[in-house]
Automatic annotation (TrEMBL):
Keywords: Hydrolase
SUPFAM superfamilies per record: C-terminal (heme d1) domain of cytochrome cd1-nitrite reductase
EC number: 3.1.1.-
One Pfam family this sequence matches: Lactonase
Protein name: Lactonase family protein
Coiled coil: none
Presence of keyword Hydrolase: yes
Protein family per UniProt: Belongs to the cycloisomerase 2 family.
Taxonomic lineage of the native organism: Bacteria, Bacillati, Bacillota, Bacilli, Bacillales
Cross-referenced Gene3D superfamilies: YVTN repeat-like/Quinoprotein amine dehydrogenase (2.130.10.10)
GO molecular-function term, one example from the UniProt record: hydrolase activity
InterPro entries: Cycloisomerase_2, Haem_d1_sf, Lactonase_7-beta_prop, WD40/YVTN_repeat-like_dom_sf
Length: 357
């Protein structure tokens, strides 16, 4: 396999054990196989990753109990190798999610430890400047141990880059902010907060490519919520909620990740405990979902997964069994089939991919 393949995979990990930080692999588009290229020491727990629109820089959330950090790296366009540039405080503890806005000017991050969000400016060389905004949430919900205070689990921008949705896991809220992309400020939206069912624990949100629909996966409730989206005002209207677990399953399980296929035809979510990917078809006119089925992920705790840039493969990253498993994706039915390829990575938490084709 060519080590200079045009598709690179970046894997964020927890560093409690043998992890070396962030791992870099190349992908063979013909087989889906991943081949190790390099690793980068990236501080404590470089768990969640985000890639700059230029594909020249990568950012990592260092999940630390005390003062969290956001780190920046440059990307070698030929070999995918990462070179550390700098870090900036996230303003809170345990940052678990981040993204780069579409203009490439700002990083937005969510701190799980204290329920806050921050905005960091990106300098001309790709490094990070001191934060331009910081907002701490308040509130709690019904779970006796996991919702005693605010816990931001993700921040997601709409496709136009106008509104940011913060999944407030601890308070069962979706907080919506308008992004001032000139000053790096988060401003109140027309409807700044939307309540979800008590005990749901909203974790990740994803926008459909057409910008009309939003899907939110709930960790504690094991449900997937489907919203209509008013892109003019940043308002979400709930229209349906689906169970992510098979009927009759009574074991422990917690949802983690959610993605829409690049062509908008399918939605996928991961179940940790049931250890599966749930698959839905998207009705093209309404965005309504219909269950296709569940695919075992061949590992424990699929905390993260990704659909590759070609839309042909899905990779499930298992935090508890230190492996990432490749599946071939059927573009007509949405179903998954193991390719037989897998790799060993210590405690993988996030996987991101870029294509330099």
């Amino acid at each position: 396999m060519n080590k200079h393949a045009a598709i690179f995979a970046y894997i964020g990990t927890q560093t409690d054990g043998s992890s070396e930080g962030i791992y870099v692999y190349s992908m063979n588009p013909s087989t889906g196989e991943l081949e190790y290229l390099s690793s980068a020491a990236a501080g404590i727990n470089p768990t969640y990753l985000a890639i700059h629109p230029s594909k020249r820089y990568l950012y990592a959330a260092n999940t630390i109990e005390g003062e969290g950090l956001i780190s920046s790296f440059s990307i070698d366009p030929l070999k995918g190798r990462l070179t550390f540039m700098n870090s900036q405080p996230s303003g809170g503890s345990k940052p678990v999610h981040l993204l780069v806005d579409g203009t490439g000017k700002f990083v937005l991050a969510g701190n799980f430890g204290d329920g806050s969000v921050c905005v960091l400016p990106i300098q001309a060389d790709g490094s990070l400047g001191a934060m331009t905004d910081f907002i701490r949430h308040s509130g709690s919900s019904v779970h006796p141990t996991r919702q005693q205070g605010p816990r931001v689990h993700s921040v997601t921008l709409d496709p136009a880059g106008r509104y940011a949705v913060a999944a407030e896991y601890g308070a069962d809220q979706l907080r919506v902010y308008q992004l001032d992309a000139e000053r790096g400020k988060l401003l109140p939206s027309a409807v700044p907060s939307m309540t979800v069912a008590a005990g749901s624990g909203p974790r990740h949100a994803v926008f459909h490519p057409n910008e009309r629909w939003v899907y939110v996966i709930n960790e504690l409730g094991n449900t997937l919520m489907n919203y209509d989206y008013d892109s003019d005002q940043g308002i979400l209207h709930l229209k349906e909620t689906h169970a992510t677990l098979p009927e009759g399953y009574a074991g422990p399980s917690f949802c983690a990740d959610v993605h829409v296929h690049p062509d908008g035809t399918f939605v996928y979510g991961s179940n940790r405990g049931h250890n599966s990917i749930v698959i839905y078809t998207v009705e093209p006119n309404t965005g309504m979902l219909q269950l296709v089925g569940h695919e075992p992920t061949l590992g424990r705790a699929p905390r993260s997964f990704i659909i590759d840039p070609t839309g042909r493969y899905l990779y499930a990253a298992h935090q508890d069994t230190d492996n990432i498993v490749a599946f071939r994706l059927n573009r007509q039915t949405g179903t998954l089939r193991p390719t037989g390829h897998s790799i060993k990575v210590p405690m993988p938490v996030c996987i991101k991919m870029i294509s330099l084709l």
